[in-house]
Amino acid sequence: MKLSVAGDTQVGNRYPANFDVLAVEGSPDRPVLVVADGMGSGRGSAFAGRTTVDTFLEMTRTGQPTAELMRAAVAECQRRVIDGGRAWPELTGCTLTALIVDGAQAWITQVGDSRCYRWRNGLLEQLTVDHTEAWLGAINGWWPHDSPQAHTARYHLLRFIGHPDAPEPDVLNVALRPGDVLCLCTDGIGEEVSYRKLAQILGSGATPAEMCTSLLAEAMATGGNDNATVAIANVI
C-alpha cells in the first residue's frame, strides 16, 4: 500500500513553550508516527516527552513490528523516564501514542490520553482509549459528561510514561484499507476540536499536511488552550 504522511505542532496560548513532542519518520512503506504530551510545564515534562519519543524510535527502527516489540519499546521508555525523573522532585511524565505501518496493517500503542483516530468510509472512530478517570466516569455513568467532576477527572491520568508502577501500554493491530486516514493527536486537538469538525477535516480528501494545518488552525480558533500536535497517515 502507498501512504502519505505528515505531522505538525503548535504552542497555543496557554504555555510559554511546547511540551508536546512529534516524530514522523521511516520509509514510505514503513512510516513511524509518534506523539507525546508532557505533563505540566516544567523540566520533568520536557524531559519525559523528549526521552520517550527518542527511546521509542530507537527501539523500533529495526525489526519486524510486533506486539512484543511495542511493549518492549514502551517498557524501555518507562525505565528511562522513571530513572531520569529521580534527579528532581517535580512531576516527570508524559503520554505516548505511536503507530508503525507494516504492509497492509498498522501497529498502535497507547499510554495516557493522547489518541489515535481512524476515518474510514465516512465514519470517524477513536481507536484508542483514554487512560483517565474521566474516561472511566463517562462510560460507567459516574457523573454527567459536562459536570465539574468530569472536567477535573480529565487531568487524572491512570496510566502514563513515568508512572512509578510502569504500567503496560495498550497495543492494537488494525488492517489498513485504501482511503483510510489515521490521525494521532495530543489532547490539544482531541479536547479542543469537535468530533464533527475532526471528521470533516479527516474526510476532506486534502493532503495529510493540509489536514494538519487545518486541525491546528481549528484548535487555535477554539482558544488554543493547550499545546497541540497531530500526525496523519493517509492510505492511498
Key structural traits:
five-stranded antiparallel beta sheet, 28% strand, 10 strands, 236 residues, Phosphatase 2c, domain 1, single chain, alpha+beta
Protein model, in words:
By secondary structure, this protein is α+β, with helices and mostly antiparallel strands. It has one domain (3-233): Phosphatase 2c, domain 1, CATH 3.60.40.10. The protein contains 7 helices and 10 strands. The chain has helices at 43-60, 67-85, 133-140, 148-153, 187-190, 195-202, 208-221; strands spanning 3-10, 20-27, 30-37, 96-102, 105-111, 115-120, 123-126, 170-175, 181-185, 228-235. The strands form 2 sheets. It has a 5-stranded antiparallel β-sheet. Strand 6 (115-120) and strand 7 (123-126) form a beta hairpin. It is globular. The model has no long low-confidence stretch (mean pLDDT 96).
Instruction: Give the full name of the CATH homologous superfamily.
Output: PPM-type phosphatase domain
Oligomer: single chain
**What's the mean pLDDT score?**
96
Number of strands: 10
How many domains? 1
